[in-house]
Design a protein that fits this description.
By secondary structure, the chain is of the alpha/beta class. The protein has a domain of about 80 residues: Rossmann fold, CATH 3.40.50. It has five helices and seven strands; from the N terminus they run βαβαβαβαβαββ. α2 runs parallel beside α3 and α3 packs parallel to α4. The longest helix has 16 residues. It is globular and about 40 Å long.
């Protein structure tokens, strides 16, 4: 039996967090869903994840800084990261690239299916694959 890919999901909006977690679990992932960046960074220091999914529209904290902090953990230094956006722009793309986020997904256009597909592209056969 294959091990489910373990996803660290960081989303500040609690309703959206629950919706995303449920959808990703239905898509076959094990999901640690958190709304607090500090808590996500702490968890990344003790738990190895197959992928990170982070809301880049979060204005309450710095999603790019949190991503870099998570990637500083030896357990998750090579974690592929998917950024959720409402609409992409050049600045968001550049900030994502600089913080180690390898893929952006517009959740409104792609929905859970598109997010799950992007995660599958990035976490291949139990290995952390570069984006």
């Amino acid at each position: 039996m294959d091990r489910k890919k373990r996803i660290l999901l960081l989303e500040a909006d609690l309703d959206l967090l629950l919706t995303l977690r449920e959808g990703l679990e239905e898509a076959g992932f094990a999901v640690d869903a958190l709304s607090d960046g500090d808590e996500a960074a702490r968890k990344s220091r003790i738990t190895r994840f197959d992928a990170l999914v982070v809301d880049l529209a979060n204005r309450e904290e710095d999603p790019f800084g949190v991503t870099m902090e998570i990637k500083e953990s030896p357990l998750n230094a090579d974690i592929p990261a998917v950024g959720l956006v409402s609409a992409g722009d050049a600045l968001t793309e550049k900030m994502a690239e600089m913080s180690g986020i390898g893929a952006l997904v517009c959740r409104e256009r792609t929905g859970i299916e598109g997010i799950a597909a992007k995660i599958r592209e990035t976490a291949v056969d139990g290995e952390k694959a570069p984006l």
